[in-house]
Amino acid sequence: MAKRKKKIPLSTSQLELFNERPIEMDRNFHLGGKSFYFFDFDDNVATLATTIVIFHKKTGQELQLSSAAFATHHREIGISGVYKDFYIDFNDEKGSFRNFRDQKYSLKSKKQKFIHDIEEALSKKDFNWKAPSWNCFFHAAHNQRPISVITARGHEPDTIKKGIELLVQDGHLTKSPNYLSIYPVSNPGIRDQLSEGLETPSIADLKRGAIRESVEMAIQKYGYSDHHRFGMSDDDPHNVELITEEMKSLKQDYPQMSFFVIQTFSDSFTKTEVLQHRTRDIITKKESTADQISLFF
């Protein structure tokens, strides 16, 4: 099998600038603290062409929706609005989210959809696939901050790693991320692990559990410090709501540590610090633009 030829999507000078970018220490390095970066992937780090399939109630006709369109309308599907006559099928192999799951292929050469969609994004001359948290993801990977990828996808963690490695091979990342954890929360095994007895946990419920496990994993791996900083960026409002609730719970357990929630939009973001009994706006949507996004550095 021929080796995939490495593309150089950026100019040589740009790649040199990336490679020459200095390594920055953690903000609380001098106090013994580390910064931990948690990322939702789709429409937050990268915007891929992966579609969600919904089905017409009477005819069974399939309709493909982008992840952004699904995030906007998923609560209306089958109930009201333009998609009231459609429904969501939760079968992992043939249902609405089949493109967000690994499939069992008879041919070993056939790629999983996540790999295919990243390759498709990289084949384009522009870089419009880079979503609002991209610069922060780049910073975290370049400086080897511990990263957790907490995504609604249901692939195997190794598939997520392989897809992100393509971004390294094509020069968009200077280094492979320093992974703390990878939680594709719709993966059947991971979903069972995080559901904690809930009969039908939502994606937001599962992400909430993944954040808790990732924080505890960080403390176990890197040791406890009052000066650790944790933050999660996500573009889905409902996810952000429950992420914030879990951060509040974590703040009660670890009152000296810092916890942040970043909600991203197409051209801006908000940054909120979670305190023990309230939240505090650090950056509001009106004050921000997407290229200014900064979590902890």
- Mean pLDDT, rounded to whole units? 88
Distance between the termini: 43 Å
Helix tally equals: 8
**What is Rg?**
19 Å
How can the largest sheet be summarized? 7 strands, mixed
Number of strands: 10
The portion of residues assigned to helices is: 25-40%
From the helix content, strand content and strand pairing, which structural class follows? alpha/beta
| Apparent shape | globular
**Low-pLDDT ranges:** 1-16
Give me the side-by-side strand order of the main sheet.
6-5-1-7-8-9-10
Explained architecture:
- Helices cover 31% and strands 19% of the residues.
- It is of the alpha/beta class.
- The protein has helices at residues 12-20, 67-73, 113-122, 134-142, 157-169, 188-195, 203-222, 237-253; strands at residues 35-39, 51-56, 62-66, 86-87, 146-151, 178-184, 229-234, 258-264, 269-274, 279-283.
- The model is unreliable at 1-16 (pLDDT under 50).
- The longest helix has 20 residues, at 203-222.
- The strands form two sheets. The protein has a seven-stranded mixed β-sheet with strand order 6-5-1-7-8-9-10, with helices on both faces.
- Helix 3 (113-122) runs parallel beside helix 5 and helix 7 runs parallel beside helix 8.
- The chain contains eight helices and ten strands.
